[in-house]
Write a structure and sequence with these properties.
About 45% of the residues lie in helices and about 20% in strands. It is of the alpha/beta class and about 325 residues long. It folds into two domains: about 200 residues, inorganic pyrophosphatase (n-terminal core) (Alpha-Beta Complex); about 120 residues, Diaminopimelate Epimerase, Chain A, domain 1, CATH 3.10.310. The strands form two sheets. Strands 6-7-8-9-11-10 form a six-stranded mixed β-sheet, sandwiched between helices. The protein binds manganese (II) ion.
């Protein structure tokens, strides 16, 4: 019962509480903090609560405007009796607020990440659900257990956090959707959420993506589509754009003076069927051409000094070799 943990925390004589988000706070952190503030006001109306973050992300700036809430300014942490830390699995991520752990005051942690060992050492007040795709979903569950229907604004905030952190429901599970329908029933404005979260890309990033698509060379190797392109910046975003557009593997190179940066992305499908591991591919590139490469199975990068054509030639050769004994790509 997470509500018990929440209520027990307030047994401490608390008059003023600070709700702290991680550095570069994203919409999940900010919206969760906002909804917690509302929940505290509902259950413990005598307690004053403020929200703080060292800084917030660009999209979160718009979210703050939507919620018409401001972050605490000109505060010192010893003004508060207790702290709630949201969406943060590592105290270093609190930035200028990381010293709250040294005050020996009550701290409640609400999060959906696997907690870092250093984090669980300083408090026993933990509401952690790693199965949840967002912290906002956990906060929604607090409202639900308390039998409190969130206001329209709070419901919209929670839906915003859930939508953002579940990557627009790519990572959602049954409880995510249950939360979503409840929140929409409570008046959450889904179209406002989508509009707020989809206007996050800068013009220069959109331009880089469009140029990457325009310049892409497409290699059809055993029906697998390999797209290779170049931009001057936003190479990772350009890779994602090529994958979203239909490539099985996307490689985008950014040339910067003496240096080149290579970003690579692939679909889960080609990784599962062919075993091509981009992190290893980039490591191999680093062993052959001056530079350092590495990463994950479907997302990797390389930084080096060599020429653009040499890198492309090498990567294509390796991919071709690896696909030789692999099953072909899907045909419609
Ligand atoms: Mn989160």
């Amino acid at each position: 019962m997470i509500l018990n943990t929440f209520k027990n925390f307030f047994i401490n004589h608390i008059q003023k509480i600070l709700i702290i988000c991680h550095q570069n706070a994203d919409p999940d952190a900010l919206c969760s903090a906002y909804a917690i503030k509302k929940l505290v006001a509902h259950i413990f109306p005598e307690i004053e609560s403020l929200i703080a973050a060292d800084d917030i992300s660009k999209v979160s700036n718009g979210v703050l405007e939507d919620l018409q809430v401001s972050l605490a300014k000109d505060i010192t942490i010893d003004m508060f009796d207790a702290f709630i830390i949201v969406d943060t699995n590592n105290i270093e991520q609190l930035g200028c607020y990381r010293s709250v752990v040294n005050l020996l005051k009550p701290i409640l942690l609400i999060d959906h990440h696997t907690p870092h060992i250093s984090t669980t050492q300083f408090t026993k007040h933990l509401i952690i659900d790693e199965a949840s795709t967002s912290t906002a979903e956990i906060v929604y569950n607090l409202f639900k257990e308390a039998g409190i229907k969130p206001s329209q604004d709070t419901a919209t905030a929670l839906l915003m956090g859930i939508t953002y952190d579940s990557k627009h429901f790519l990572l959602a599970n049954a409880s995510t959707f249950r939360a979503v329908t409840d929140l929409i029933d409570a008046g959450a404005d889904y179209s406002a959420v989508i509009e707020r979260l989809s206007t996050t890309m800068s013009r220069s990033e959109r331009m880089a993506r469009l140029k990457a698509i325009n310049r892409a060379q497409i290699h059809d190797i055993k029906n697998w589509l390999i797209a290779i392109s170049h931009v001057s910046s936003y190479e990772a975003s350009a890779c994602r754009a090529l994958i979203e557009t239909g490539a099985d593997i996307a490689i985008v190179i950014a040339k910067r003076k003496e240096e080149i940066r290579v970003s690579a992305r692939s679909t889960q499908n080609i990784y599962k069927k062919t075993g091509i591991h981009l992190g290893k591919l980039m490591e191999e590139l680093g062993a052959t051409i001056e530079g350092v490469g590495g990463g994950h199975s479907t997302a990797a990068g390389f930084n080096g000094k060599n020429s653009y054509t040499k890198v492309i030639k090498y990567l294509l050769k390796i991919i071709e070799e690896k696909l030789e004994n692999a099953p072909p790509g899907p045909l419609d």
